[in-house]
Design brief:
Blueprint (H helix, E strand, L loop, with lengths): L1 H17 L17 E7 L2 E7 L10 E7 L7 E7 L5 E2 L12 E2 L2 E10 L5 E11 L2 E11 L7 H25 L7
Antiparallel strand pairs: 1-2, 2-3, 3-7, 4-5, 4-8, 6-7, 8-9
């Protein structure tokens, strides 16, 4: 009985540590730290595209910021991302937002928060801006390097290995602690 209680306590501790953290409000985060930017002429507008990581690597989370000359208050922006294999990638947007959303940590610019591009190669980003000076579109090629670190399968094996060992020990302890019936 004592071992079963210990096993339940260990499982509860593991699940408690693995529980998702509570989300904080956007005011508790600092603005995006842009380490690299590119300028793109989008019709009559100049758009500064900012990246929180550079160079961009596959499956690495980063923030994008999009800031047209003159600000975003009198304009609407769109973005279409096409992967190296030619598939259009759906970008996360808040419900009800059809164009580029304001960045949650820097609301004076458009942006995407902690987005990861899934595959390496040349991504095509097509921007559209509709504002006081008319509409414009432009395309930018974004080179994305290989995923950092070891392959994903090896990372999963290394990270879940200790959990598998602990579960094996708990199962063995539970089997040893059972009363045996003699027939």
């Amino acid at each position: 009985m004592r071992r079963a209680g210990l096993a339940l306590a260990v499982i509860g501790l593991l699940l408690g540590v693995a529980a998702p953290a509570h989300a904080a409000t956007s005011q508790s985060y600092p603005p995006v730290d842009v380490v690299h930017s590119e300028r793109v002429a989008v019709g009559p507008y100049e758009l500064t595209v900012g990246f929180s990581e550079w160079p961009v690597r596959a499956r690495q989370s980063l923030d994008f910021t999009f800031e047209p000359t003159g600000g975003i208050d009198q304009a609407d922006g769109t973005l279409v991302a096409v992967s190296p294999t030619g598939e259009e990638e759906p970008l996360r947007r808040p419900d009800g937002v059809h164009g580029l959303p304001r960045h949650p940590r820097q609301p004076d610019v458009w942006g995407l928060d902690v987005l990861a591009l899934d595959e390496p190669g040349d991504w095509t980003l097509t921007f559209g801006i509709d504002g006081a000076h008319g509409t414009g579109t432009a395309t930018m090629t974004l080179p994305v390097l290989e995923q950092p670190g070891p392959p994903l399968g090896l990372s999963w094996l290394v990270s879940t290995g200790p959990l598998i060992v602990i579960l094996g020990i708990l199962v063995a302890a539970a089997r040893r602690g059972r009363p045996r019936t003699h027939s």
